[in-house]
């Protein structure tokens, strides 16, 4: 692939994220415990930090088949055993969390991590947090907007009075603790709608796109809408950051990567479809091979194949961050660890070198 020239290429970040799913192993049918899953997440975080990756994201779910519901608690544990890697949620369901509690938790995380805390906010694939915490899904947009506004006010003020529609008023109260960072960075997770992209642009947050398959060029209109909305709202173009997140599996050759990944990926897709109440038909190997071809957004292949896919998307989006989900479908930890090593030692240097020239 031809190397890319760009004036906006400093600090391209590469990292990983996990949702902590506890999917049965496709070979044994057995699932690991939540405790083991959490311990493996901690080990992966240390490895990513020591290998030089830039960021790790931890997802939020409220189900027995996911190990993480208290994202800030897990990130705080990671903060104590890592040194430099950024720590983000992936994603915080902003519509169903008290913004004051969210600010307190991530300000505390920021203090514990010496200024490494971030938030990716969004709705997520599952909706269990709405009934669990007593919210109406029909109020999603209004809740999101109000909670975002309050969170930003909490970031700006040591003491605050505030009143909204969905939360009890705040009357001249201390907002504590104060984080190390002037403002905790917030990104908005976008799955594929122009409305979400435009909202991220209007608010001036980063935009993290979940591109999980298919032709990545279909996301280009979202990036354009995001940047246009941000500029119209008066935000500086340099602050409108775009991230790409996606499923990833790396091995020595592309054929080997496909052979190793197919049982876990098809297992993951069937299991998630079951969770979402969709068709349970297993993906055939031919379908999978098509989904993983060089022009698609599924990051499966040799290090060079994955580098080329990241750079192809960089040509489309000019983004500043790539985060790989390496651990879906019951993949054993040793294979996750090997993928972290590939990502950090073989892929990240090539991508950064290509972008910086």
TrEMBL record:
InterPro entries in the record: Bact_Lucif_Oxidored, Luciferase-like_dom, Luciferase-like_sf
Organism classification: Bacteria, Bacillati, Bacillota, Bacilli, Bacillales
Annotated GO CC locations: cytosol
Native source organism of the sequence: Paenibacillus crassostreae
Protein name: Luciferase
An example molecular function term from Gene Ontology annotations: oxidoreductase activity, acting on paired donors, with incorporation or reduction of molecular oxygen
Keywords for the protein's UniProt record, in alphabetical order: Monooxygenase, Oxidoreductase
Pfam families registered for this protein in UniProt: Bac_luciferase
Luciferase-like domain: residues covered: 13-317
């Amino acid at each position: 692939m031809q190397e890319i020239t760009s004036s906006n290429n400093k600090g391209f970040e590469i990292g990983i994220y996990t949702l902590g799913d506890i999917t049965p192993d496709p070979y044994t049918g057995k699932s690991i415990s939540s405790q083991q899953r959490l311990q493996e997440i901690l080990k992966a975080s240390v490895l990513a930090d020591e290998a030089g990756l830039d960021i790790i994201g931890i997802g939020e779910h409220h189900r027995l088949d996911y190990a993480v519901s208290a994202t800030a608690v897990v990130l705080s544990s990671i903060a104590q055993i890592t040194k430099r890697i950024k720590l983000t949620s992936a994603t915080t369901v902003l519509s169903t969390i008290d913004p004051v509690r969210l600010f307190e938790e991530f300000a505390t995380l920021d203090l514990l991590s010496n200024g490494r805390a971030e938030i990716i906010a969004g709705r997520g694939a599952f909706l269990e947090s709405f009934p669990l915490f007593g919210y109406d899904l029909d109020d999603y947009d209004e809740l999101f907007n109000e909670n975002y506004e309050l969170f930003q006010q909490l970031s700006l003020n040591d003491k605050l009075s505030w009143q909204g529609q969905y939360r009890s008023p705040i009357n001249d109260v201390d907002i504590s603790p104060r984080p190390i960072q002037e403002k905790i960075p917030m990104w908005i997770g976008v799955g594929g709608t122009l409305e979400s992209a435009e909202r991220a642009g209007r608010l001036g947050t980063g935009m993290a796109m979940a591109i999980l398959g298919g032709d990545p060029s279909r996301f280009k209109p979202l990036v354009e809408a995001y940047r246009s909305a941000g500029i119209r709202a008066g935000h500086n173009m340099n602050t409108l950051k775009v991230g790409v997140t996606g499923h990833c599996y790396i091995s020595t050759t592309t054929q080997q990567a496909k052979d190793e990944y197919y049982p876990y990926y098809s297992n993951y897709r069937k299991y998630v479809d079951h969770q979402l109440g969709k068709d349970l038909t297993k993906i055939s190997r031919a379908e999978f091979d098509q989904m993983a071809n060089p022009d698609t957004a599924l990051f499966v292949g040799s290090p060079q194949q994955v580098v080329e896919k990241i750079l192809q998307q960089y040509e489309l989006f000019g983004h500043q961050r790539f985060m790989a989900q390496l651990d879906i479908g019951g993949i054993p930890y040793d294979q996750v660890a090997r993928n972290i090593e590939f990502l950090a030692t073989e892929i990240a240097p090539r991508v950064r070198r290509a972008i910086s020239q």
